[in-house]
Design goal:
Blueprint: H1 3-10, H2 14-39, H3 41-46, H4 58-80, H5 82-108, H6 114-128, E1 130-136, E2 147-154, H7 162-179, E3 183-189, E4 198-204, H8 205-222
Antiparallel strand pairs: 1-2, 2-4, 3-4
Helix pairs in contact: 1-6, 2-4, 2-5, 2-6, 4-5, 4-7, 5-7
């Protein structure tokens, strides 16, 4: 039994939540700042700078982080346009999330199984004030997914602009891949885009490869 993961899954100290939230805020904001320095150096000089650690209770820190994300994504959009912003910034957020996921995987001693992944995701999402349920089969309608995560409450949803959420959700998907190299997370619906809940597919990479191979074999037989 993984005692670190077990203990954190039943009780998370406030100091741990604040520490992890500040770390997440710092690495994501630093990456967005790095893009602004390259693509909009003049704009970067004009935006308010952030000092870490962010002070306040968890709700206040989340709000400060979300506002800072909005400012930077908007600044990038003003310089590059929304489509180019997503094209450039979302993969960087995925990479940032992936590295964070690897770090947490090492610190918590996670195994490459779905159970450890879901427990670790619950811990990380508590840092952000997000509640989710993991479903398999019928619970994933209307997308006919084998398994999915449904987020009914997100403390960031009322703060984030849709473009900010589109960019930063790349970090969520990256974290999952970092926690388990065999799993992909792909958002299908988001609260910030008008949905009642966020829905994200949880897919096994081996399954996808097998499906692709089967499709290719079928196509070869037809030809």
């Amino acid at each position: 039994m993984n005692f670190k993961l077990f203990l954190l899954s039943i009780w998370i100290p406030k100091y741990f939540l604040k520490k992890e939230l500040n770390h997440l805020a710092e690495i994501t904001l630093n990456q967005l700042d790095s893009l602004l320095k390259i693509h909009g150096p003049t704009t970067y000089q004009q935006i308010p700078k952030i000092e870490f650690p962010l002070n306040g209770n968890l709700e206040e820190i989340r709000l400060k982080m979300a506002q800072a994300h909005n400012i930077r994504v908007n600044a990038l959009s003003d310089v590059l346009g929304p489509e180019e912003t997503v094209k450039i910034a979302r993969p960087l957020m995925f990479k940032t999330g992936y590295e964070l996921g690897l770090d947490i995987k090492t610190r918590l001693g996670l195994k490459e199984n779905l159970n450890d992944l879901i427990k670790a995701a619950h811990i990380l999402y508590q840092v952000l004030g997000i509640d989710f349920e993991f479903h398999e089969g019928d619970g994933c309608d209307p997308y006919n997914l084998k398994s999915c995560i449904i987020i009914n409450r997100c403390s960031l949803a009322h703060c984030y602009l849709p473009l900010t959420c589109q960019v930063l959700s790349g970090a969520d998907e990256g974290v999952v891949s970092g926690l388990n190299s065999q799993v992909e997370m792909i958002f299908k619906e988001k609260i910030t885009e008008g949905a009642s809940a966020c829905i994200a597919a949880i897919e096994l990479k081996n399954e996808n490869n097998n499906n692709n191979n089967n499709n290719n074999n079928n196509n070869n037989r037809k030809s």
